[in-house]
Amino acid sequence: MENILKQLPQKAKEAEAENKKFFAKLKKKPPKHLDSLMRELHEAEFKRTDCLTCANCCKTTGPLFTDKDIERISKHFRMKPQQFIETYLRIDEDKDYVLQSVPCTFLGADNYCSIYDVRPKACREFPHTDRKKFQQISNLTMKNVAICPAAYNIVEEMKRIIK
Fold it and tell me: Which of 111, 151, 158, 162 is an S-S bond match for 127, by CB 3.0 to 4.6 Å?
């Protein structure tokens, strides 16, 4: 996995122009079966990929925390939401709540998440490759391809299938 993660940013950069072109086409005229195809590709990839051997998303990026996330997680810690915010979060340039630093505070040395059952929605849905109307999140997917080996593989397989 270490080798794959070292090569991933370069591979994503090499595929960037092709991916941009592909996603632009996909946005204009998405296939009727895109949602079901993405769900199939996502499920097949995650049967092969074990996130616990990687956790690159948790090590290199931080999720957005919604008000519901903050409410749920602060309750888990038996904290007031404001106390949770002051302890763990900051407001970014887009006025969103994000972690004060990465790697994620809640990531253990064993790549397990200490708040897995109450983790933020953004973490639960990452890398968003099984989302409905997938073609609408191409910018996010382009970023995720450079972070997540599974997202990279899903996009490569998708390009192979949808010519």
Answer: 151
Residues 148, 18: Cα–Cα separation, whole Å = 18
Q: What is the pTM of this model?
A: 0.93
| 120: nearest Cα among 163, 66, 159 | 66
pLDDT digits (tens, 9 = 90+) for 55-101: 999 999 999 999 999 999 999 999 999 999 999 999 999 999 999 99
Name which of 63, 62, 61, 81 is nearest 71 in CA terms.
Answer: 81
Q: Would you tell me the crossing angle of helices 138-145 and 149-161 to the nearest 10 degrees?
A: 120
Query: Dihedral, CA atoms, 93, 146, 14, 20, nearest 10 degrees?
Result: -60
150, 45 Cβ separation under 8 angstroms: yes
Query: What's the pLDDT tens digit per position in 26-47?
Result: 999 999 999 999 999 999 999 9
